[in-house]
Please model this.
Amino acid sequence: MNYENYKNLLKEFVSFKSISTDEKYKSDVAAAARWLYELMSRFGFDVKLVSGYGNDIVLGKYVVSPDANTVLIYGHYDVQPASQDEGWKNDPFELYEDNDKLYARGVVDNKGQILIHLFTVIELIQTSQLRYNVIFMIEGNEETGSPLLDKFVQDYADELKCDFVFFSDGELTMSHPVIETGFRGIVNVILKVTTSQKDNHSGLYGGTIPNAAHVLSQLIAGMHDASGVLILPGLDNTLTGIDENLVKDSESMPFDEATFLNNTGAKVRFNNTMNFYLQNGYLTSAEVTTLSAGYLGEGFRNAIPGSAVAKINFRISPKHNSKEVLNAFKNYLQTHIPSYADYSLEFSEACEPILIDVNNAYATELKSIAHEVYGKDCYFKLCGAIVPVAGTFQSILKVPVISLGLGNEDCNMHGVNENYDVELIKKGLYLSNKFLSKK
Model:
């Protein structure tokens, strides 16, 4: 396991501004896919770039033996936006090392993690120690919700035929390895509230007409109780119905409040009498991610906003579905919107929650290897985020799906100074080698 060779490849990989959320980076996205294509080609993979499903999907296969089992390894090469003026220590698309961490956009999410498995497979090919036939499926639209990936998996089901799926797109938990047993679903909503057809002078009309920003703020505030729990009428947002084994796994995992607050930069954890892993993995949440109203430029315009907009991100419990949550939200708005205000809703990026069956030999073996590599217990864990394709693999390919994240908890993926702990990279390389090599 040559870490320096891995690092050199990672330096090349993260240099591509493969930002799928912005069309102006289309050529960079394509270049990242081409880089993967050429890397696999050099080492004997049967590889192709598949178009027609959004950004190119890199599909690379290596057959050890017709008698060997096949693993499908998934990852994505697209990344979130980043610019140095946001507060990065360095250019976010130049790999930078400081205090035993590597910094770059995508260094954890997901270039660094998928490259661990690709680099490992390449090494095992060179030493004739690869245990499985391998299919790499690396996409370029994960950060935009993978809208066409279901169709791709359906269309290419024969080429993707495998014995199990394996991917790494998350983090350790309190320095413990975890295998995800479920993911919360997701749906994004744009809520617009209108109280007037125009903005009005705050001196002439202040205090006499409704303010759209005030109305929207009141609606948002009413969606949660004092402890921060979503309380939409008709939506049972409690732990009822959860599997007892998931409760036991969650309660056995260590959690440190001080570390949590340090990692988040927050002063308090809401609903902190509940187990964090159950709270985060099994309760539906609604977070305002954008809030805008009135004049947003420099200085003051002193006008009462006639309209206000909020973008809201719902994370959906495995016991709910997107339709249930959206219906509860609509009912809440219809009940609580003042008669003098109107509202409109736009919906996008709905992904249903997923429960994963980890009762299989592959998950059992990986759990044992992870315990050995990290020197700590490996837990089964409900994940508050989602990798949408996990459900697609499970429903279409009908094979075991195993998700084990290799990143550090303070990696700050999607944020400024995204980073990957060097020691964890080395352990990730070791784990991947142990799992994918001949015994």
Observations:
- The first helix runs from residue 3 to 14.
- The CA atoms of residues 18 and 28 lie 5 Å apart.
